[in-house]
Amino acid sequence: MARPHIEPFCDRDVNFKNMLLPGFGRGMGYKMLSLDNDTGACSMTVQFDGGYSQAPGFSWSELEMIVIEGELQVGARKVRKGHYFFVPAGYALPALSSTGGAQVLMMYNTGEPSHVEATEHHPLSQVDLYHDIDSYMDIPWAVGNVTKPSVASGCMIKLLNYNPISHAMTFLYCMTPNFYQDNISYHDCAEESYHLWGTSWMMQFGDLPSGGYFWRPAYINHGAFASEFGCIALGRTDSKLFNHFHYNPWTTPVENRARSAARIYQRDPLLYRWMMSKDHNHPHSPQDFEQTMARRGPDYDHAAAAVSDGKEHHHWHGHHHRHDGDHDHSHSHEHGHRHD
Amino acid sequence: MTFKNLFIEHRRTPEAQAWIDEEVAAQEQRFQTIEKQMRDLAPQREIWYREFFDRISTIGFNADGDDKVRIKPEDLPVQPEGRRDRVVWKHGTDTD
Fold first, then answer.
1. What ipTM describes this predicted complex?
2. Would you say which domain of life the source belongs to (chain B) (predicted)?
3. B25 CA to chain A: closest CA distance, Å?
4. Alpha carbon of A26: minimum distance to chain B alpha carbons (Å)
5. B 34-63 near A (Cβ less than 8 A)
6. Which residue out of B3, B4, B8 would a mutagenesis test of the A interface target, given it has the greatest number of A Cβ atoms within 10 Å?
7. How far apart are CA B61 and CA A152, in angstroms?
8. Where are the domains of chain A?
9. B7/A300 Cβ within 8 A
10. How many CB atoms lie within 10 A of CB A126?
11. Which of A128, A207, A213, A250 would you mutate first to test chain B, the one with the most B CBs within 10 A?
């Protein structure tokens, strides 16, 4: 089975363990974030002690890494926090060392961590795919609408790696202070995130601070979203990212998946029929829960169900908004704020 | 992430297999802890759900980017009878 749902987790809550696998030498500590039970693929926060050095060599697995803190000497180059590497399996990196120590997020995508001493690439390595960049200094922030429907403004990204076949992505993302987005989302892909700095909030899981992490299998509800003071994080998906937004917090992953299929059926009926008829015939189309779910209805006492009297509500960011009278929520009117 | 078959076949050493087994066991413990923490968060989450319903029916639901749609109170969902609130799904759609 692939990686399980790990959400939320904060690496600050555990200690570094010594890396004892061969090839990595002494002075490398790690905190496991998530691991594929079968392949050994994993994501780890790694601490290189001051004076650490590693001989030139390659991994049997594809590797991504980004420097979190400190400086790393990679061959003749010194790289600093925010530097990102995409390293194909079998690609021989030069010697790696750190004089003053460094923390690095390391992601072995296709197998367990391994290091084979070598100064030449493995013959099967797809060396042309290697790339690295200072993601903090050399890439501008772009608006987050890489997919439609999109995230709210205030969530921006820097694309670090993109797979043109699967549309899998690795990216930095940030949320500006007071970012919020009031919807529930799920995706047709797994999603992973590590908070480099700052705290964000999700309605299902609460606050995710610096060092916060999740690995979330496909079709699991997450959101609404908010960040009071802003955050910056590294995010990844394992295939195309599509935002299925809705507002029912009680749906299951199976129902969400059926809704995804229903949306294909509604949008591309010819394609859908052809796909379904090749292998088997379904007597019923997949169910879109938004069309069938139980709703409150006109006789429901909505005012009584709300947490407030309809004039005052306790928002995610710890403020109390009070608004009297019937009005819209544009920012052209005055709010009476009361801070906790 | 990958997915261009960027993996080179090799024989996994017993040492590496032992390391994986140890990490899998630790991860299972971590999962149990997270699952309990998220169950314990349910009362707070219930309040967050109500506030969410309050906001999307007054301020609006983010339908796409900053485009907001106010959801009519009568269109808000109700929790299906007998279904407990659950947010952690070990293997997504393959969860028991």
1. 0.95
2. Bacteria
3. 9
4. 16
5. 34, 38, 41, 44-45, 47-63
6. B8
7. 11
8. 6-134, 142-246, 253-292
9. no
10. 17
11. A250
- CA of B67 vs chain A CAs: smallest distance (Å): 8
Query: A6-134 with A142-246: one CATH topology?
Result: yes
CB contact under 8 A, B94 and A1: yes
Query: What is the DSSP annotation of A192-258?
Result: EEEEEEE-EEETTTEEE-TTEEEEE-TT--B--EEESS-EEEEEEESS----EEE--TT--HHHHHH
Cβ within 8 Å of B, A 229-258? 236-239, 245, 247-250, 252-254, 257
Residue A329: closest CA among A310, A309, A307, A305: A310
Measured CA to CA, the distance from residue A277 to residue A271 in angstroms comes to: 10
Q: Are A171 and A235 in contact (CB under 8 A)?
A: yes
pLDDT category of residue A275 using cuts at 50, 70 and 90: confident
Rounded to whole angstroms, the Cα distance separating A209 from A25 reads 31
pLDDT of A327 above 50: no
Residues 264-283 of chain A whose Cβ lies under 8 A from any Cβ of chain B: none
pLDDT at A287 over 90: no
* Residue A47 pLDDT exceeds 80: yes
What residues of chain A lie within 8 A of the CB of B94, using their CB?
A: 1
Residues of B in contact with A105 (CB under 8 A): none
CATH for the stretch A6-134: 2.60.120.10
Nearest CA in chain B to A111: B7
In chain A, whose CA is at the least distance from the CA of B12? Answer: A112
pLDDT of A12-24, one tens digit each? 999 999 999 999 9
Helix and strand tally (H, E) in chain B?
A: 2, 2
How far apart are alpha carbons A233 and A146 in whole angstroms?
A: 17
Give me A5's structure tokens.
Answer: 């749902």
- Per the CB < 8 Å rule, is A182 touching B13? no
Under CATH, what is the fold of the domain A142-246? Answer: Jelly Rolls (2.60.120)
Q: What is the mean pLDDT of residues A222-233?
A: 98
| pLDDT for residue A338 is more than 50 | no
C-alpha distances out from residue B88 to A32, A133, A259, B73, B96, Å: 19, 35, 19, 28, 12
pLDDT of amino acid A282: 56
Q: Are B2 and A110 in contact (CB under 8 A)?
A: yes
Q: What is the mean pLDDT of each run of 10 residues along chain B (96 residues)?
A: 68 95 98 98 97 97 97 97 96 88
